[in-house]
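User: Some background: our group keeps a shared notebook of sequences we're curious about, and every so often someone picks one and asks for a predicted structure to add to the entry. Today it's my turn. The entry only has the sequence so far, pasted here. Could you supply the structure so I can complete it?
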Amino acid sequence: MGQEFENAFEIRGITVAAYYRLLIPEIIPEYDKIIYSDVDVIFRKDLTQIYESTDMTDYYMAGVVDPSPDVFEYHNYIKKLNLLPENYIYSGNLIINSKQLREDGIVQKFIDEARHSHYKYQDMDIINIVCKGKIKKIAPEFCLSLAVRNCAIYQTEPLFYTKQELEESLKDGIIHYSGPKPWEKYCPDFDIWWEYYRKSIFFDRTYYFEFFNRKMNEYDWLPLWKRIKILARWFVFRNRGSK
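Assistant: Of course. Here's the predicted structure to add to the notebook entry:
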């Protein structure tokens, strides 16, 4: 990848490697349109239809917008970047118009922003800032994040997607484990990840057994103060639910 992002800003434990997706149009020049995905995902259906049906004419990037209506701090941050929350897409799953990005010299703009800026969401901010006005919002099934799942499960009135679109994402959308990782701890859809892992050529019975065996006894190994904290939290939420 060279030294293009050697001194790029890092935050929240996310390394310089997160910026590498910005170079895709130039390091894979033989393709004009590319699907990019982070590694912490599960694909549950063929991507051919969404790839072929997404017209990228006049757009640099296509992605999924966070549909949550109650993330005010997140939305306020986006507005401070002079962007609109309804147009701000995730960077974990993208459809990239590589041809147009190359022709318009956008990759160099990505690099310049990464070198001289300190954005909270790093590559994601840079994509949305540089590609402003050239971003296409696509169905949430392309990136079933925890926020998308929350809106669909709790029937929260979505700001940017219909309830039908959210329901379809639950059925067979690309699951993106952008928060807790299922190979480290329990999280929503962790069972789906383990199901696919068991079917994969990388399946290791020892690793599988040790993970779940450790989880069965996890609370027994916690220090006393952590156990008390868990009990206190349980009582708080229990009382809230009974009101």
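Suggested note for the entry: The chain has one domain: 1-183. The chain is about 45% helix and 10% strand.
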